[in-house]
Amino acid sequence: MANQHSAATALGLRANATQFALLVAINALVGGMVGQQQAVLPLLAHAEFGLSGYTFLFTYVAAFGIAKATSNWFAGTLSDRYGRKPVLLAGWLFAIPVPLMLILAPDWSWAIAANVLLGINQGLTWSTTVIMKIDLVGPAQRGLAMGLNEAAGYGAVAATSLLAGYHAEQYGLRPAPFLLGIAYTALALLLSGVFVRETRPHALLDAGNIASRGASARHGRDAKLSNRQIFSLTSFREPALSSASLAGLVNNLNFGLSWGLFPLLFATADLGTSQIGLLFALYPGVWGIGQMFTGALSDRIGRKHLITAGMLVQATALAIIALGSGFGGWAAGTVLLGAGTAMVYPTLLAAVGDVAHPSWRGRAVGIYRVWRDLGYAVGAIIGGIVADLVGLNAALWMAAALSVAAAIAVAIRMYETHPPHPRPTPAGDAPAMLPRDHTNP
Predict the structure, then answer these.
(1) Which domains are assigned to the chain?
(2) Buried b (16+ CB within 10 A) or exposed e, 339-375
(3) H-state helical runs in 303-326
(4) CA 89 to the chain's CA centroid
(5) Distance between CA atoms of residues 244 and 308, nearest Å
(6) Which stretches of sequence are listed as region Disordered (predicted)?
(7) Cα–Cα 20 to 30 A to 194, which of 143, 211, 260, 385?
């Protein structure tokens, strides 16, 4: 199989630099669709719709998270069955109404409906760009690839959030911030439809390389796993995959909580809209830039300890934000939260790519992202309830405690999926049906 595809395709970042760079740019547009509303929509809810209850206000984050989590499953399944590019294009079609609905919304239900469509857009497009980059680069540079992918996406979240906050302060909450989304969607449809090429042949080449290394019998059985078996392994049974799913859920619980809570918390100090936008941009900004380094670092030192440390850094950052009362303390906390998230985010995706067989990698990534993005909804709902009943700071302390618990779970259960130097797999370290495949050159 390797010879069949090698003439037309090659694995590696350098060999696929043009397509990889194009997908990085598209994922930046994906992130920008979220950034257009993050700092603005909670303020819009208060100013124009008179919403004050945290639980009700966070419904738009929950709607987004549930829709995104569900569409991640379809992104992985459909991309394995029909190819990556059709799923990417379909995801951008769902984005078309989103900014228009937010501009024209007569009541809050429109904002919730727009976030359902945005969640579908994010699940289909972001998942697919992740899968396509893993396809292109092969096993040796997965961490670097995921770092660049997530850096582009969350860097664009930060930049667009800052830009949207500026436009909201200068020109009003509507329509100026959401005009960015219209431009992003039009550009993404053009790039995805005309210039992106299908990457599924690269996954087939990777699968052929695995067989040629003498693992064909075991991996051949892996290639025939059912959707139910893949879901079970990724969610519960396989130690590395299921640990990644848990850590991803808690990581996005923190992000979902921050999305709905941070603008309201920062507004208690009578900060201006642009200052709130800056504070909110620091978190994904540091997160985005940091991933350019942490993803590559995980290729050198491994995944497990970087994930464990990153969850503990996030817990520390949430505690600092809970104890803060002004711009300086909150800025320090959001910067640290971004750093901790950067340690975790691309590393978890790389770990999933390490363990999953290329023939069902898309589905494994999709299932991992189902659990991870359910964190948006869990954080929004639980955080909103705790904030309503006890206060904003109590919701932050809850998230900090959950981050510590996730770090402990990873430290105990996850094995190292990508050591800096290949070594024999310890007996019993992973289920026999899913052996680890260390492919460092």
Answers:
(1) 15-200+233-413 (1.20.1250.20)
(2) bbbbbbbbbbbbbbbbbbbbbbbbbbbbbbbbbbbbb
(3) 304-323
(4) 19
(5) 10
(6) 420-441
(7) 143
The whole-angstrom separation of Cα 304 and Cα 262 is: 29
User: Over 50: is that where the pLDDT of 441 sits?
Assistant: no
pLDDT one-digit tens code per residue, 98-129: 999 999 999 999 999 999 999 999 999 999 99
Can you give the pLDDT at residue 371? 94
Cα separation of 1 and 210, whole Å? Answer: 10
- Reference 331, options 340, 316, 320, 319; nearest CA is 320
Q: Which of 225, 226, 259 is nearest to 373 (CA)?
A: 259
Determine the distance from the C-alpha atom of residue 331 to the mean position of all C-alpha atoms in its chain, rounded to a whole number.
Answer: 22
Alpha-carbon distance of 23 to 171, in angstroms, equals 32
CB neighbour class for 431 (10 Å; exposed up to 12, middle 13-18, buried from 19): exposed
- Predicted confidence at residue 223, as pLDDT, reads 57
